[in-house]
Design a protein that fits this description.
- The protein is mainly alpha-helical.
- Helices cover 53% and strands 4% of the residues.
- It has one domain: AF1531-like domain (DNA polymerase, domain 1, Orthogonal Bundle).
- The chain contains five helices and two strands; from the N terminus they run αβααααβ.
């Protein structure tokens, strides 16, 4: 039974991985891009976006801890990048 389920789930998992970037910019990513990060589901991804909209851009990867907690932020550091938007002129 497990092998059967694994075979059917495998193509979906592979398709999802192909559409995920190697790195996710937490200042520009939408919910679907944030969900590419391991351990980040729909609710957590939405919380990251909402926090960014309410408080402005994340200054660095460590600031993600305010939303996902310090342990999760540490685990995500390898795949998270932060491009701070330029200040308007």
């Amino acid at each position: 039974m497990f092998a059967c389920c694994t075979l059917f789930a495998s193509p979906f998992a592979l398709a999802a991985r192909k559409t995920c970037p190697d790195f996710v910019d937490i200042n520009h990513a939408d919910v679907s891009q944030l969900r590419c990060l391991r351990g980040v589901g729909e609710k957590r991804a939405a919380a990251v976006v909402t926090f960014r909209e309410m408080h402005g851009p994340y200054p660095g990867p460590a600031s993600l801890a305010a939303v996902v907690g310090p342990k999760m932020a540490q685990r995500l550091r390898e795949r998270v990048v932060v491009n701070v938007p330029a200040a308007p002129r």
